[in-house]
Automatic annotation (TrEMBL):
Enzyme Commission code: 1.2.5.3
GO molecular function (one): copper ion binding
UniProt keyword annotations, A-Z: Copper, Metal-binding, Molybdenum, Oxidoreductase
Enzymatic reactions: CO + a quinone + H2O = a quinol + CO2
Cofactor(s) listed in the protein's UniProt record: Cu(+); Mo-molybdopterin cytosine dinucleotide
Lineage: Bacteria, Pseudomonadati, Pseudomonadota, Betaproteobacteria, Burkholderiales
Principal EC category: oxidoreductase
Organism from which the protein derives: Polaromonas eurypsychrophila
UniProt-listed InterPro entries: Ald_Oxase/Xan_DH_a/b, Ald_Oxase/Xan_DH_a/b_sf, Ald_Oxase/xanthine_DH-like, AldOxase/xan_DH_MoCoBD1, AldOxase/xan_DH_MoCoBD2, AldOxase/xan_DH_Mopterin-bd_sf, CO_Mo_DH_lsu
Subunit structure: Dimer of heterotrimers. Each heterotrimer consists of a large, a medium and a small subunit.
Highest taxon of source: Bacteria
Function recorded in the entry: Catalyzes the oxidation of carbon monoxide to carbon dioxide.
Name the record gives this protein: Carbon monoxide dehydrogenase large chain
Length: 800
């Protein structure tokens, strides 16, 4: 009965334990339940007719041949959606997006019509048979070209509108101007600074390319007037709200279910035309409709990432103290502004671009621009544009170090926000919750023998016969995650809180439901660990459910590494409500006053008396059996958590590359990643998240690219061309950590999932450029594929 405390604690598998992933039992046996696994009686299939052109007027659509194909039931175009007012839909960014192209197509692969058929094959044949006559228009794929006075008007639906969702539009292809910081103070600091540096850089368009593409199964029950839709969504509740608003079906009769998701990475935040069309088709036909896109459709038409043309500037003293930061960005948003940022932040959290540094003055400006490319922009482990912000500031600090002939580590340490400055308010107004950058930096530099590496590099540089260029990359980044405080963060007006509901059953097991939804992050494993520690119930008997809007409390979903900072807090606080009630029950059962009780791992005991106690299991039974007089039966609680602030995880990453001087082939010799995400719930899952994020960062930095030719034809939209690293190409990752808890989070935890992506990409560029730094090179753009590196070698005269 009285097992040692350490055994009892271990048995809970609570916070801090590397509990094995509960999800994997089904995933490794092929027993996951993805949208494409949903098979309903009488179900039909949808496929999409897409535009081969990037910019064209639609002259005519002929459905006749398609409708003759056996099995084809219907072909829907914008004309069919018009009476329902569903041919356009609102985007999460305050713009509108064509559900099906309305008189004009704006990007290659845009949705033009849908075909519904008895099976997938007939639907695909139907797509082939739909005849669309286009009149090609001049495409614009370069945002700088798009802003020229004579540039073609891309969005005719916005003609004459000088006000957009985020203020004034100064050009017909301009979406918004967004700025932050103090321009005057910053300009003044630049005017009088001893040293200034300026660098242009381009963070190219990439795509997260989750293994599972997007899709939906929509099932409208005309008798009950109820719509159930299984959907690949990272935010099912907000989808329910939007579907209800668009369709007029009461929210209580709309049920959105995100079952297992095969990777989201931000690609599954937006609401796509395919979802809307599947729902409309189900309502029209009165039958369940399944739509699953293929790989090329996914890469070509769904939420891409980045496409930021950035100019950074730093002003500093002659000995390297940074005085001011100024940035100017042209953000290519594609044909519709469908970025999934919190409403008031059209450039996301880009204004974290002052990074880990105590910079007195800063100013940033971002202009969003329309081009003939697919919409999106916020995806791929980005923390709402923190990827771009960290890339910018980390590159700029390197450029400044080069100009001053200072060491990268030294200049960073010199400008760090010091441990005692937290909570620290940045020039952009963010209040950083906690950090200890110097301790982390020292740990990394010692672990890799930084001095030794620099000595080796110097030796190699001095030896003309050395066949390789050695580069050392260093990044000391700060993230901002946990959107967000509802006073500043909302999606379509809904505050960005999150929620948790826990029910403890009579026999002491529990079920917990949250407003977030795992796409591979292991929430079923880690969320249970929080409850286990808070309530003394073993993780193993805590069921975690997410993703079904009919059962889960309203929450804003999983993206921006917000699950731990927001839902994680809701979980702890819902647990604490149960804990408080359990204490009352325990006092009643033990016939003592509540004040005389103390909590110990899994039980309340009489203070100082190990023999007089009630375990949480005893209490659960009593809650349903003999609750104290005046206390209602049952043991459950709901908590909606509106965070007081974001959390600010950070990391120190170091990379060593060896580049073949003849071919540009690059070997990642070492990659050392230290992360600090505050209190760690499951070290193994954190490690997995970091490995995944680093691997994706490696992919982006070293090979991924979506480019377009002048006509707007997308290049590299299949896995033949698009670089998805396998275990063969992936470097060996070395990970490390420090723990600086968040002071405002109930368990001190910060988010971690996006940090490795945000931090690693500039680390690779830092290493690659460092290899050329002694030749006066300050920057070159990603991807650092062998061919492009070889071009740099040629420019440097190292190869011919
Ligand atoms: N965790 C922890 N201790 C902490 C912080 C986190 O143990 N201090 C654990 C959490 O309990 C959770 C995981 O790490 O199991 C990630 O938590 P968190 O950092 O809060 O991030 P989210 O759960 O909100 O995940 C979102 C994030 C995003 S935005 C992208 S993009 C991304 C990522 O997760 N997409 C992923 N990682 C992914 N991993 C997989 N496998 N698939 C995706 O689509
Ligand atoms: Cu920006 S990718 Mo994640 O936030 O789903």
């Amino acid at each position: 009965m009285n097992a040692p405390m350490s055994d009892r604690e271990k048995a809970l598998m609570g916070m801090g334990e590397s509990r094995l992933r509960k999800e994997d039992a089904r995933f490794i046996q092929g027993k996951g339940n993805y949208v494409d696994d949903i098979k309903l009686p009488n179900m039909v299939f949808m496929d999409i007719v897409r535009s081969p052109l990037a910019h064209a007027r639609i002259k005519r659509i002929n459905k006749e041949e398609a409708l003759k194909i056996p099995g084809v039931l219907a072909v829907l175009t914008a004309e069919d959606l018009k009476p329902l007012k569903l041919h356009w839909m609102p985007t999460l960014a305050g713009d509108v997006q064509a559900v099906l192209a309305d008189e004009k197509v704006h990007f290659q692969m845009q949705e033009v019509a849908v075909v519904i058929a008895e099976d997938r094959y007939a639907a695909a044949d139907g797509v082939e048979a739909v005849e669309v006559e286009y009149e090609e228009l001049q495409a614009v794929v370069d945002p700088f070209e798009a802003l020229k006075p004579g540039a073609p008007v891309l969005r005719e639906d916005l003609a004459g509108k000088t006000d957009g969702a985020h203020g004034k539009r100064y050009h017909h292809n301009h979406i918004f101007t967004w700025d932050a910081g103090d321009k005057e103070a910053t300009d003044a600091a630049f005017a009088s600074a001893a040293v200034t540096v300026k660098q242009d850089m381009f963070y190219p368009r990439v795509h997260p390319c989750p293994l599972e593409t997007c899709g939906a199964v929509a099932s409208f029950d005309p008798v009950r007037g109820e719509l159930t839709t299984w959907l690949t969504s990272q935010a099912p509740h907000i989808v329910r709200t939007v579907v209800s608003m668009l369709s007029g079906i009461p929210e209580s009769k709309v049920r959105i279910i995100s079952p297992d998701i095969g990777g989201g990475f931000g690609n599954k935040v937006p609401i796509y035309p395919g979802y809307v069309c599947a729902i409309v088709a189900s309502i029209v036909l009165g039958r369940p409709v399944k739509w699953i896109e293929d790989r090329i459709e996914n890469i070509s038409s769904t939420g891409f990432a980045r496409d930021y043309h950035m100019t950074g500037e730093l002003a500093a003293t002659a000995d390297g103290k940074i005085l001011a930061l100024r940035t100017n960005v042209i953000a290519d948003h594609g044909a519709f502004d469908a970025c999934a940022d919190p409403t008031k932040f059209p450039a996301g959290m880009f204004h974290i671009c002052s990074g880990s540094y105590d910079i007195p003055s800063a100013y940033c400006k971002v202009d969003g621009v329309y081009t003939n490319k697919a919409p999106g922009g916020v995806a791929y482990r980005c923390s709402f544009r923190v990827t771009e912000a960290v890339y910018l500031v980390e590159r700029m600090v390197d450029v400044l170090a080069q100009k001053l002939n200072m060491d990268k580590a030294e200049i960073r340490a010199k400008n760090f926000i010091q441990r005692e400055q937290f909570p620290y308010t940045s020039a952009f107004g963010f209040e950083y919750d906690s950090g200890d950058y110097q301790t982390a930096l020292d740990k990394v530099l010692n672990a890799v023998d930084y001095k030794g590496l620099r000595a080796e590099q110097a030796k190699k540089r001095a030896d003309p016969a050395c066949p390789t260029l050695m580069g050392i990359g260093l990044v000391t980044f700060t993230e901002v995650v946990g959107a967000g405080p509802s006073k500043i963060c909302d999606i379509l007006g809904v505050g960005m809180f999150d929620s948790c509901e826990i029910r403890v059953h009579p026999t002491g097991s529990a079920i917990a439901r949250m407003g977030t939804i795992s796409q591979g992050q292991g929430h079923q494993t880690t969320y249970a660990q929080i409850i286990a520690t808070e309530l003394g119930i073993p993780s193993e008997v805590i069921q975690v459910e997410e993703g079904d809007t009919s059962t889960a409390p309203y929450g804003l979903g999983t993206y921006g590494s917000r699950s731990t900072p927001v839902a994680g807090a809701a979980i702890a606080l819902a647990s604490r409500k149960i804990h408080a009630k359990a204490r009352k029950i325990a006092a009643h059962l033990l016939e003592v006053s509540e004040a005389d009780l103390e909590w110990e791992i899994d039980r309340f005991k009489l203070r100082g008396n190990d023999d007089k106690f009630k375990t949480m299991k005893d209490i659960a039974w009593a809650a349903y059996n003999q609750p104290p007089p005046g206390l209602e039966p049952g043991l459950e609680a709901v908590h909606y958590y509106d965070p007081p602030n974001f959390t600010f995880p950070f990391g120190i990453y170091l990379c060593v590359v060896d580049i073949d001087k003849g071919t540009g082939e690059t070997k990642i010799r070492r990659f050392y990643a230290l992360d600090d995400c505050g209190t760690r719930i499951n070290p193994m899952i954190i490690e997995g998240q970091i490995h995944g994020g680093l691997t994706e960062g490696f992919a982006v930095a070293m090979g991924q690219l979506l480019s377009f030719d002048k006509q707007g034809n997308i290049q590299g939209n299949s896995l033949m061309d698009y670089f998805l690293p396998t275990a063969v190409e992936t470097p060996k990752w070395e990970t490390d950590y420090t723990v600086t808890p968040s002071p405002h989070h109930p368990i001190g935890a910060k988010g971690v999932a996006e940090s490795p992506h945000v931090g690693s990409i500039p680390t690779f560029t830092s290493a690659m450029v460092d290899a050329f730094a002694h030749l006066g090179v300050t920057h070159f753009n990603m991807p650092h594929s062998s061919y492009r590196v070889w071009q740099e070698l040629k420019k440097a005269g190292l190869t011919s």
